[in-house]
Amino acid sequence: RTSPQAQPGPATRRNHPLLVELYRQSLVYFLRDRQPPVHLVEAWWGDLSADDRATLMREVPLVIGNLDGVPINARIAANAQSAQHFAEMPDISIDEQHYWQRVADGSVTLVVSDPAQSRIVEMIGELGPHTTKVLTYVPGTGTQMKHFFQGEAQQVSRYLVARSASNTVAFVYKDGSWVSWVGENSNTHYEFLHELGQGVQRFQSQVIDREPSLGDVDRVAAGHSAGVTVLSAAEIAGAEFDLVVSLGGSYLLQAWQPEQGTNYHHFQYENDLINRIDQGRLHTPHELDQIFEPHIFDSNGRAQLHSHSRVAQGPATNSAVLRELARVLEEKGP
Fold first, then answer.
1. CB environment 245-269: b (16+ within 10 A), e (fewer)
2. Number of domains the chain contains
3. pLDDT tens across 46-95, in order?
4. Cα dist. 333→138, 176, 299 in Å?
5. Is 307 helix (H, G, I), strand (E, B) or coil?
6. Is the domain of 185 the same as that of 310?
7. What's the distance, Cα to Cα, between the start and end of the chain in Å?
């Protein structure tokens, strides 16, 4: 029997006759392996019939599910289609198989999903007129696809959405290769960190800001560890937030300046290992306590490295931090 991996189906197809017009308008972008301008995609999608849209979501879901300019709900539906294929691929872990099956049945929603390119953005919560806050959560150094499959990357966001009485929608963001400890993607490779920040800024401007149900809501960003460095790069690139939260944040890129009108908060356990980079040439949220309002918690004798990881965990190990974080979100937004 031929495996799904050896016999590509619609979930991995990237060409379709209905895409020809978009490709024609945006050929130079596709040749450079870049997204076409979002306004062209919006116009193209708007001109399609309902039947043509349904055909594209069914037959080229990998394209539609990751195409800026396509509405979020259509992207979610397309990514549910491709997830069924991913769940049937051989030699994947039980965690991964279960995750993709949950995407396929709609219990997990993805607005970006291309595992071959390490691209994933999970949406937690439901969009609607009740939405008053949108959270973009950027995980820390070493985050991989498996941390989504195992539910580790989403712990903070799930808690905050559950506490918000359905008023908050969160996007847990890892769009492509992520920050690592060493190598060309290391957390001291400034050019790479700027690229990641530009990606976050594009996601804000081309996905969140163009979603009608998110027009007049409070925009919150939270990052763990190097995720805060990525958020500083996003602000340098032009991203705007009402509230930025550092969870054991590492440092801010040199060109970063606090945005007028943005509230900044820093959460950590008192013995966080990340504080070893204080008093150096890097500006850390821990040191910048006149900008980042500090929230410091007792580690209860836990190891320094454990404290750094713990601040981004769920309520079983991190309840005091999460309760205080939820309070800050409730106070700072509408």
1. bbbbbbbbbeebebeeebbbbbbbb
2. 2
3. 999 999 999 999 999 999 999 999 999 999 999 999 999 999 999 999 99
4. 19, 30, 29
5. helix
6. yes
7. 56
Q: Judge whether residue 2 has pLDDT over 50.
A: no
Residue 167: its pLDDT value, please?
A: 93
CA angle 123/128/132 to nearest 5° reads 85
Instruction: Select from 86, 109, 132 the last residue of a domain.
Output: 109
Are residue 194 and residue 93 in the same domain, yes or no?
A: no
Torsion, CA 73, CA 74, CA 77, CA 79, rounded to 10: -110
Same domain, 101 and 128: no
Report the C-alpha gap between 113 and 115 in whole angstroms: 6
**What is d(CA 185, CA 107) in angstroms, rounded to the nearest whole number?**
32
Shared domain for 256 and 158, answered yes or no, is: yes
CATH of the domain at 169: 3.40.50.1820
Q: Alpha carbon of 30 to those of 11, 23, 65: distances in Å? A: 19, 7, 16
Residues 133 and 223 in one domain: yes
DSSP secondary structure, 204-234, as one string: IIIIITT-GGGTTSEEEEEEETHHHHHHHHH
Amino acid code (one letter) for 44:
W
Alpha-carbon span 178 to 153, nearest angstrom: 13
Q: How many C-alpha atoms does 78 have within 13 Å on its Cβ side?
A: 30
Determine the average pLDDT of the residues in 250-260: 96
DSSP string, 92-113: --HHHHHHHHHHHTTSSEEEEE
